[in-house]
Specification:
The relative contact order is 0.17. With 254 residues, the protein is of the alpha/beta class. The strands form 2 sheets. A 6-stranded mixed β-sheet has the order 6-7-8-3-9-10, with helices on both faces. The protein has 10 helices and 10 strands. The two termini are 37 Å apart. Helix 3 (95-101) runs parallel beside helix 6 (154-168), helix 5 (118-138) crosses helix 6 (154-168) and helix 6 runs parallel beside helix 7 (184-201). The protein has 2 domains: 1-79 and 170-254, 3-Layer(aba) Sandwich (Rossmann fold), CATH 3.40.50.300; 89-167, no CATH class. Helices cover 39% and strands 24% of the residues. It has helices at residues 42-49, 72-77, 95-101, 111-116, 118-138, 154-168, 184-201, 212-218, 236-239, 243-249, and strands at 2-13, 16-27, 31-35, 57-62, 65-66, 80-82, 172-176, 204-208, 221-226, 229-234. The structure holds adenosine-5'-triphosphate and magnesium ion. Residues 42-43 line the site of magnesium ion. Magnesium ion (MG) binds at residues 42-43.
Length: 254
């Protein structure tokens, strides 16, 4: 059930304790939210999980494999991807080409398979093409398949980013504030698409989000961070009734 297990992670930057013994788990196929005030350690936790910063102490297990302090590449190969690991879309490429670019295991990129395993390469290309089209359909981008990415609206670019992450086919997708600066209609649409991605492709999501209403509406499970610790976790409706959590959000904490 538990796909990602974070056990007593500590990380300091000089004298600043950014993570002060974080314990947290993410269930397979859940939409899990991570909330908390500015500077509470959410992005640092993402950086630790994905290998961008080494942790000082503790362990991170994914599918029961210890991935603590592996390189970002290795961690991505274990099936953990965060949004910024997918490079920015190439504006002079079409939407479809951009999605195809993040497919994993592209045999055609190597000259040897091209020469000796032509059939396999063609088969894989056809499959990738089918999958890319299916993903574009899911994210309401089909009508833009052959448009240049440069011409997309801000909202369409956000959806394209999700399409490209999905094409890379990770098991868990980490999103750090995916709807920052987005209007409410689009914010809801993005979260609806996240649910669709989970349902159709069996993905797990861990999402840092400041908008509490959105978290309540779309996340099944949440963790609240404060000062480098998870201070409450569980069902959103219960967690937001927790006194410690209310104190932080109402600014009552000293
Ligand atoms: N590379 C770094 N060097 C020094 N201090 C850092 C570094 N990264 C984070 N910190 C500090 O660690 C603490 C946690 O920061 P972090 O960015 O993880 O918070 P956050 O919860 O993501 O905040 P926000 O909601 O504002 O994005 C802060 O005090 C921050 O200043
Ligand atoms: Mg942050």
């Amino acid at each position: 059930m538990e796909q990602l297990k974070i056990n007593n992670i500590r990380k300091s930057f000089g004298g600043i304790v950014a993570l002060d013994g974080v314990d947290f788990s993410v269930k397979r196929k859940s939409i899990t939210g991570l909330v908390g005030p500015n500077g509470s350690g959410k992005t640092t936790l993402f950086n630790s999980i994905t290998g961008f910063i080494p942790v000082d102490e503790g362990s991170i297990k994914f599918n029961d494999i210890d991935i603590t302090n592996l390189s970002p590449d290795k961690i991505a190969n274990h099936g953990i991807i965060r949004s910024f690991q997918i490079p920015k879309p190439f504006s002079k490429m079409t939407v479809l080409e951009n999605v195809l670019l993040s497919a994993r295991d592209q045999l055609g990129e190597n000259i040897l398979p091209l020469l000796f395993r032509k059939k396999e390469v063609i088969k894989q290309e056809t499959e990738n093409h089918e999958r890319a089209k299916e993903i574009l359909e899911l994210l309401d981008l089909s009508h833009l398949t052959n448009e240049y990415s440069a011409g997309l609206s801000g909202g369409q670019k956000k959806l394209l980013e999700l399409a490209r992450i999905l094409m890379a086919d990770p098991d868990i997708i980490l999103l750090d504030e995916p709807i920052a600066g987005v209007n409410p209609t689009l914010a809801n649409k993005i979260f609806e698409k996240i649910i669709d991605m989970r349902d159709k492709y069996d993905k797990t999501f861990l999402i840092v989000e400041h908008n509490i209403d959105i978290v309540r509406d779309y996340c099944e499970y949440i963790g609240v961070m404060n000062r480098g610790k998870i201070i409450a976790d569980g069902d959103p409706s219960k967690v937001f009734e927790d006194e410690k959590v209310l104190n932080i959000y109402l600014g009552l904490e000293d």
